[in-house]
Amino acid sequence: MISKPPRQQTVSLKAVRYSSTPQSESTDDTYSGPENVEDYCKTHGTKYCLDKQDNCLSLFSRIFIENATQNQERVKAIFTSNDKGIMNVIQMLKCNLCHDILQASSIVCDSCKLCYCVECQENYVIETNSNCLNECSGEFSDLHDENQKFLLKCLKFKCENAQKGCESSFKTLKDLKKHEERCDFSFRTCQYCYKKKIMKKNLQNHLVSNCKIARKCQNFPKCAYIGTRDQVETHQEDDCAFTEIYCTTCLKTILRRDKDTHSCIETLRTLLCEKQNFLDKKTSKLSKITEENSKLRIMLENMKKTLLEKCEYEGKLKREIKRVTKESMKLTSPKKSCSKGSDLVTKRQRTVDQASPSRLKRTTRGRNC
Ligand SMILES: [Zn+2]
Ligand SMILES: [Zn+2]
Ligand SMILES: [Zn+2]
Ligand SMILES: [Zn+2]
Ligand SMILES: [Zn+2]
Ligand SMILES: [Zn+2]
Ligand SMILES: [Zn+2]
Prior knowledge:
This protein is mainly alpha-helical. It is 51% helix and 9% strand. The chain has a 3-stranded antiparallel beta sheet with strand order 1-5-6. Strands 3-2-4 form a 3-stranded antiparallel beta sheet. Strands 7-8 form a two-stranded antiparallel ribbon. Helix 1 (6-20) runs antiparallel to helix 3 (68-81) and helix 10 crosses helix 12. The model is unreliable at 1-37, 336-342, 344-348 and 355-369 (pLDDT under 50). One zinc ion (ZN) binds next to loops. Residues 109, 111-112, 114, 132, 134, 136 line the site of one zinc ion. Residues 1-33, 326-369 are annotated as: Disordered. It comes from Euplotes crassus.
């Protein structure tokens, strides 16, 4: 049995306290980021190690309780009732083969009580022809320790950049490592001006807008190339897919990326098609105007006809008025006292009217025009 060093016990308890109040007194200045070599396990050369060694402590300090309000009391009870301290509690959650936190579906050796991920144990059998690290007979059960199962469910690791704003957290070291390698909040050093501690998510902005050395391609943002002044000039001259080049055959300007697929005939055909389309549009516009014109002409024709009819009618009216005026004058004149005479006139008039309607028509037409 390993005796518990008092210093480890202190740190372990702090880790549990830290989890209940995430924004603790720790600040960016005191935070030991990935640059800190002390974070690395000297035995395994990685910072993702849950060994009971002093140099792996930063990982323990990042363990927190998910849904703290519900689970905190029970976790605290497990930790305080366990006389071996947090380090040994964490060992209880470890796979003895991959040394990562056990996966949800894991197994425990019935004889020696060592725990393994199912996958790790299966691989171990294939590689060594043995079932267990202690070469037990090979009877395994699902995890059945309730405290162990509970802790596996609610303990998680915060990203190492939690203090800088990253809110990601993970159950296994494998996932934690995968995330931290490309966490947006991790620090990077500019490869051009060597400015340090630029957050990964701000690095592109630094290179594009703030770096004193780095230059961007003139075709930014279509082209994302960044380099020194010389590199960018060479890139634009020789490589940039978005630089415009001149086709000496069809005399058109094309993008360099289209150089291999560019066909002069195709380009000319497209140009011709564009012109044809333009022409077609104009033609259809013209035919529309012509159509409108003919409509207007018909309308004009109709109006002319109506006018003629009106004129004709007016002429008839005028003649009628004249005739009536004449007759009324005859009637009102002093000679008209002879009623016989007047009868005669009326009779003659009627005969004339009946005899030659064509003559009347002819005269009317002549007058109307
Ligand atoms: Zn280690
Ligand atoms: Zn494993
Ligand atoms: Zn065993
Ligand atoms: Zn992160
Ligand atoms: Zn820079
Ligand atoms: Zn470019
Ligand atoms: Zn061409």
